[in-house]
């Protein structure tokens, strides 16, 4: 239950985290989509605005270049006018102009060279920007594909997790089935052992050991096909005829069946050489299958026809049951035995021999259990074989499902590794895209700077070219004075420069505004939107949402598995409770049966005593009849003529024979009082003697069975007593420790030899227990155990209370009534007793009378009993009121004590 509660809390927490993760994941996905859309929109806006900025820039740069050229030409004209007063001759002017031209050409060449180098750098930056743009575009596409692949892999991993959970549940159920099959095998084996033990109990003692030894020997020697067990193990009889079959067969049911003479001889030799007892081994190869002619009458059936057996065992069945019939009642038995001279037996087991001797009488039907036990053993062995046959199949299924689970584990681990690699690849792609976009932004800024620098170089080149052209034109002139056209040109250039400056200023402002807006958008895109997009992409690539989802699913699966196990455990507990109730009922029935058996034992003992007296009487009568028989035999031998005398008489003449006859008649007159029916009586007495001897053997057998039953009952009684004493001793030691902290107490069984106590490992023989002694040590030292006669009154009370509560824990009662049991105890023992009573009161109602405050502290309800108007009354009072009553009682006792002094 604790594990289930923890699993429920963990599953709830994981579900909460899953919900929050799903919400955060949905928010991140939405934010990622918005970020991508914003980046795309911002990039599209930049691309749309960039041509306008470029056009404005070109217009501004063109105006600036025109203004610079115009200003340069104007400055050249002004310089030309200034040189009129600077130089006296044309040659001086030309020399100065040549120097300026040389410098200007050098400057122009330097500007062109720098412009070419700048163009090359600009081309490289443009190429790098294009490559970075291609990398970013390709990375975006690959990242989108990887995201889809990661999503598919997550679905696959979760599907494998579901399959793995289903496989684990299937494996658990299969293991439960196997454990159930193992328990069933053990249960059936125990059942087979119980039935065999009961069946062996019905065998004669000498035959029991010999039969078991032969069967073990045959199993060890591998004679399964030659020694086929007992006859009983192969017989099947309907319940109606079991009493008749068992009564007629007797101990012949335990005959060992051997397929040939050699196996039979070896089995007999094994028994004789080891003196194992008596056994009958039937060689089936020597028994002819002979059918006897039996009467066909209504209510009469051949006994061999009611016995079912394998065909190879039919000769043995024919030998035992072939010359007998089973009849519906005793009248038919007597009629069949008298008319047909065969043995007949009734359904109740009463038997009439072919000589007319009747045996039987009342027999307890519960005695005829051999066939029922044999059938129960066969059924249990079939169930055992069936249960054992299921074990390999269950093991194979467990191995198969285990392999499948391991395969799913491996595949899931492989998919998870693949997903981790994919996440790492996505993170790499995201970093690569981020680096490419940063490169694009940086390259764009550098290109912008290079373009501005190229424009300045172009302006410088234009200025230099205009200056060189003006100086060359001035050098070509032959005079130092400026023509009127130059003056007009100067005025025109001055006005044109003013106009170009105004247009340039306006174009510059327009370009500055557009450029500022574009830079602002680029800054937002590069410093805000793209970093946020990269962070979201890296977070999506990390797979934290999938991890949380998988953890939640695992927690849910664990909770479901524990829920199933809890449900199965609850159902198992209910089934166990019902089974326990049935076992309790069976125990009650067993106790009742034990009481009946004890009564039956007493009755059998009385019958055995009566039978013993009757046997003694029959033995005396037998001795008397034997004496009379000897006397009659002697007389008969005197009367009967020997063959030699007959031949002698044949040789005599007739007168001699007449004379001998007359002498014989005179001799016979001396035997007038002889009983002429002595021979018939002798035959009757002989048959009665045989019958009495057989009945004596049956009585002896019954006496042995009764003695064995008594011995078993005594053993069971002895074991029950010892087991009860052991349990009481355990509870006594525990209760005594609670009453006396640090003390030790035990119950010791007193035997005749006084060598073994109940804590030993030896088993007691029947009847050697004389009593039980209580030994305690209030100090906890083993050497200081004291007997009851060595204890004080308070210590004896502690021991007695410990024994009472120990017995109570063995067989708890619904309520207990204790009358001032703490009167002789000191304060520490009273406190310990109060704690013990409070502990016992959790399961049983305790009613205790006391005058001690320690008991009141643990009481749930207090009642005051007092006398009023010569009658006892009882009132419910609080604990404080009860304590006040006790204090008042103590004060009154002190006052009475002082008064007596």
TrEMBL record:
The keyword Hydrolase does not apply. The keyword Protein biosynthesis does not apply. Residues 1-33, 110-143 are annotated as: Disordered. GO terms for cellular component: chromosome. It comes from the Eukaryota. Keywords: Coiled coil. Residues 9-33, 110-127 have a biased composition (Basic and acidic residues). One of its GO terms (biological process) is chromosome organization. Residues 225-337 form the SMC hinge domain. This is SMC hinge domain-containing protein. It comes from Effrenium voratum.
């Amino acid at each position: 239950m604790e594990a289930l509660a923890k699993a429920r809390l963990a599953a709830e927490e994981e579900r909460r985290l899953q919900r929050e993760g799903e919400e955060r994941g949905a928010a991140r996905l939405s934010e990622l989509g918005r970020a991508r859309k914003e980046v795309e929109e911002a990039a599209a806006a930049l691309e749309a605005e960039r041509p306008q900025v470029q056009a404005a820039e070109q217009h501004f740069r063109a105006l600036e270049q025109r203004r610079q050229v115009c200003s340069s030409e104007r400055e050249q004209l002004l310089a030309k006018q200034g040189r009129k007063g600077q130089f006296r001759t044309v040659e001086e002017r030309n020399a100065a102009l040549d120097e300026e031209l040389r410098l200007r050409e050098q400057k122009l060449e330097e500007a062109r060279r720098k412009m070419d180098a700048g163009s090359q750098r600009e081309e490289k930056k443009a190429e790098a920007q294009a490559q970075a743009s291609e990398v970013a575009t390709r990375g975006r596409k690959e990242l989108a594909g990887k995201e889809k692949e990661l999503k598919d892999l997550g679905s696959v991993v979760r599907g494998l997790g579901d399959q793995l959970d289903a496989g684990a549940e299937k494996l658990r159920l299969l293991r439960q089935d196997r454990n159930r099959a193992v328990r069933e095998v053990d249960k059936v084996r125990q059942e087979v052992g119980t039935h065999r033990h009961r069946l062996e109990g019905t065998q004669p003692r000498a035959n029991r050991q010999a039969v078991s030894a032969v069967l073990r020997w045959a199993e060890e020697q591998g004679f399964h096909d030659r020694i086929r067990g007992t006859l009983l193990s192969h017989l099947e009889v309907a319940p109606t005829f079991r009493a008749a079959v068992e009564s007629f067969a007797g101990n012949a049911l335990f005959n060992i069946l051997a397929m040939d003479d050699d196996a039979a001889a070896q089995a007999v030799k094994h028994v004789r050489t080891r003196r194992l007892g008596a056994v009958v081994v039937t060689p089936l190869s020597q028994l002819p299958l002979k059918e006897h002619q039996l009467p066909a009458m209504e209510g009469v059936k051949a006994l061999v026809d009611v016995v079912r057996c394998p065909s190879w065992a039919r000769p043995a069945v024919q030998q035992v049951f072939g010359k007998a019939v089973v009849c519906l009642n005793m009248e038919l038995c007597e009629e069949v035995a008298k008319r047909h001279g065969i043995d007949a037996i009734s359904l109740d087991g009463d038997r009439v021999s072919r000589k007319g001797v009747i045996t039987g009488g009342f027999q307890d039907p519960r005695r005829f259990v051999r066939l029922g036990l044999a059938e129960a053993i066969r059924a249990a062995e079939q169930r055992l074989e069936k249960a054992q046959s299921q074990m390999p199949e269950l093991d194979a299924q467990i191995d198969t499902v285990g392999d499948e689970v391991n395969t799913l584990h491996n595949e899931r681990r492989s998919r998870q590794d693949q997903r981790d690699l994919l996440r790492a690849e996505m993170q790499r792609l995201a970093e690569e895209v981020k680096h490419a976009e940063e490169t694009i932004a940086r390259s764009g800024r550098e290109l912008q700077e290079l373009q501005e620098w190229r424009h300045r170089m172009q302006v410088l080149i234009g200025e230099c070219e205009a200056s060189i052209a003006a100086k060359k034109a001035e050098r070509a002139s032959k005079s130092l004075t400026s023509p009127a056209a130059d003056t007009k040109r100067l005025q025109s250039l001055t006005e044109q420069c003013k106009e170009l400056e105004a247009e340039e200023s306006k174009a510059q402002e327009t370009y500055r505004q557009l450029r500022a807006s574009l830079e602002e958008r680029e800054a937002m895109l590069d410093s805000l939107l793209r970093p946020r997009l990269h962070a979201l992409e890296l977070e999506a690539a990390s797979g934290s949402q999938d991890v949380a989802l998988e953890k939640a699913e695992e927690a849910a699966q664990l909770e479901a598995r524990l829920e199933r196990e809890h449900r199965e455990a609850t159902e198992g507990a209910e089934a166990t409770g019902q089974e326990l109730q049935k076992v309790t009922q069976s125990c009650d029935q067993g106790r009742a049966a034990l009481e009946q058996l004890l009564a039956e034992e007493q009755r059998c003992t009385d019958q055995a005593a009566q039978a013993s007296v009757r046997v003694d009487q029959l033995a005396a009568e037998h001795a008397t009849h034997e004496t009379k028989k000897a006397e009659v035999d002697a007389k008969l031998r005197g009367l009967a003529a020997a063959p030699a005398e007959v031949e002698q008489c044949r040789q005599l003449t007739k007168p001699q024979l007449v004379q001998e006859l007359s002498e014989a008649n005179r001799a016979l007159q001396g035997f007038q009082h002889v009983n002429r029916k002595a021979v018939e009586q002798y035959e009757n007495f002989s048959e009665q003697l045989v019958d009495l001897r057989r009945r004596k053997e049956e009585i002896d057998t019954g006496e042995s069975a009764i003695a064995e039953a008594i011995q078993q009952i005594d053993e069971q009684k002895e074991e029950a007593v010892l087991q009860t004493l052991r349990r009481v001793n355990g509870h006594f030691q525990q209760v005594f420790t609670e009453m006396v902290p640090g003390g030790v107490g035990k119950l010791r069984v007193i035997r005749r030899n006084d060598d073994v106590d109940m804590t030993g490992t030896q088993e007691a023989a029947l009847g050697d227990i004389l009593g039980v002694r209580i030994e305690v040590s209030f100090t906890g030292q083993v050497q200081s155990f004291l007997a009851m006669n060595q204890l004080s009154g308070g210590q004896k009370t502690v021991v007695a209370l410990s024994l009472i509560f120990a017995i109570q824990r063995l067989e708890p009662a619904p309520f207990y009534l204790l009358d001032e049991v703490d009167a002789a105890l000191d304060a520490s023992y009273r406190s310990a007793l109060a704690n013990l009573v409070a502990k016992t009161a959790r399961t049983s109602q305790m009613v205790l009378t006391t005058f001690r405050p320690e008991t009141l502290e643990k009481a749930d309800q207090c009642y005051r009993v007092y006398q009023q108007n010569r009658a006892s009354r009882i009132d419910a009072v609080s604990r404080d009121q009860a304590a006040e009553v006790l204090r008042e009682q103590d004060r009154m006792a002190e006052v009475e004590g002082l008064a007596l002094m």
